[in-house]
Specification:
binds pyridoxal-5'-phosphate, eight-stranded antiparallel β-sheet, D-amino Acid Aminotransferase, Chain A, domain 2, D-amino Acid Aminotransferase, Chain A, domain 1, single chain, nine-stranded mixed β-sheet, alpha+beta
């Protein structure tokens, strides 16, 4: 399957060209690397999206009265393109990201692209940037779709127009064979989300209010914080950018999604994969005690994949968990990554091959 966007970019973007020449594909990190093209599609005043376009990577113009800048009317998504062993490229469940963005847009009163427009735009953007998809096993191309109120408004109102934009960035593997387990701190005072709030959406304004608690935890040597529910302060919810699972015997459990936790696409896939592997998978309230008593704990998300948790600290008590070879999280990771990269049979039809 070849595409119109498969060749080297026709324009010469000096900045990305120089970066590309210097790429060390064996040692990809987690920083921002600009790639050749972004995709931009703007809605009309009536909220209709028509044709979008690919543009060279660069800054965008925005009106100072845009509602995203003033009122935080914005959403983002995170997905990845994976290089197969045969050199092809595939996406993982992209329609799920489209649907999640539509749900967020409904809440924020914004027009959103249709599932078809979203998936088509992602495919075009990845194909235009295909030389940036890392070799199989070295990482993946992170895809960041944004939807924001770009129309100018005065007064607390939704923008008349919104913009859908996609940029991409090659990223290394977060999970390196179990060698870097996360050490989490349970955050007791600041909740991330509230009942009837927007925790269940990828709303841009969910993230910066918890920068400070994550920063403090990192300064103390933790990888991240694990948030508790805002009502009882005793049930775990999720980490800043990933969902959480605990393993006890043959059962994996993860907090149920009732509006305060992001319904992760990786989380949803793990539940199905676990059942395929003969494990019992539960979505329920998970009290802190169950975490401390678990055999294993792991995080899930597009960026982290499946990342084992080596320890959880609560009230100055640090509890350690099994990680590495032979663990349930390793088995789930192998299965998930195998499906994402085309190395294993995809009986659910989750992979979308684009070239
Ligand atoms: C708060 C939060 N939770 C969980 C996730 C994991 O979701 P997914 O598996 O869809 O990437 C993310 C990342 O998107 C996130 O930002």
């Amino acid at each position: 399957m070849e595409s119109t966007f498969s060749s080297k970019p026709s324009h010469m973007n000096r900045e990305t060209e120089e970066i590309y020449e210097k790429m060390d594909w064996n040692n990809l990190g987690f920083g921002l690397t600009p790639t050749d093209y972004i995709y931009v599609m703007e809605s009309t005043n009536g909220g209709i999206f028509s044709e979008g376009t690919l543009k060279p990577y660069g800054n965008i113009d925005i009106n100072p009265a845009a509602s995203v800048l003033n009122y935080g009317q914005g959403l983002f998504e995170g997905m990845k393109a994976y290089r197969r062993e045969d050199g092809g490229i595939q996406l993982f469940r992209p329609e799920e990201n489209a649907l999640r963005m539509q749900k967020g847009a409904e809440r924020l009163l914004m027009a959103a692209p249709s599932v078809e427009q979203f998936v088509n735009a992602v495919k075009q953007t990845v194909l235009a940037n295909k030389r940036w998809v890392p070799p199989c096993g070295k990482g993946s191309l992170y895809i960041r779709p944004l939807l924001f109120g770009s129309g100018a408004v005065m007064g607390i109102n939704p923008a008349p127009e919104s913009t859908f934009l996609i940029f991409t960035c090659p990223l290394g593997n977060f999970y390196k064979g179990g060698s870097a387990p996360m050490n989490l701190l349970i955050e007791e005072s600041v909740p991330r989300a509230f009942p009837e709030g927007t925790g269940g959406l990828k709303n841009i304004s969910n993230y910066s209010p918890v920068f400070s608690v994550a920063k403090e935890a990192k300064a103390k040597g933790f990888s991240d914080v694990l948030f508790l529910d805002a009502v009882d302060h005793k049930y775990v919810e999720e980490v800043s950018s990933c969902n959480i699972f605990i393993v006890k015997g043959n059962v994996i459990s993860t907090p149920e999604t009732l509006g305060t936790i992001l319904p992760g696409i990786t989380r949803k896939s793990i539940i199905e994969i676990a059942r395929d592997l003969g494990l019992q998978a539960e979505e329920r309230k998970v009290p802190v005690e169950d975490v401390l008593d678990a055999d294993e704990v792991f995080c899930s998300g597009t960026a982290v994949g499946i990342s084992p948790v080596g320890s959880v600290t609560y009230h100055d008590k640090r509890v350690e968990f099994k990680t590495g070879e032979g663990t349930v999280s390793q088995k789930l990771f192998d299965m998930l990554r195998g499906i994402q990269t085309g190395a294993l049979e995809d009986k659910h039809g989750w992979a979308v091959r684009i070239c």
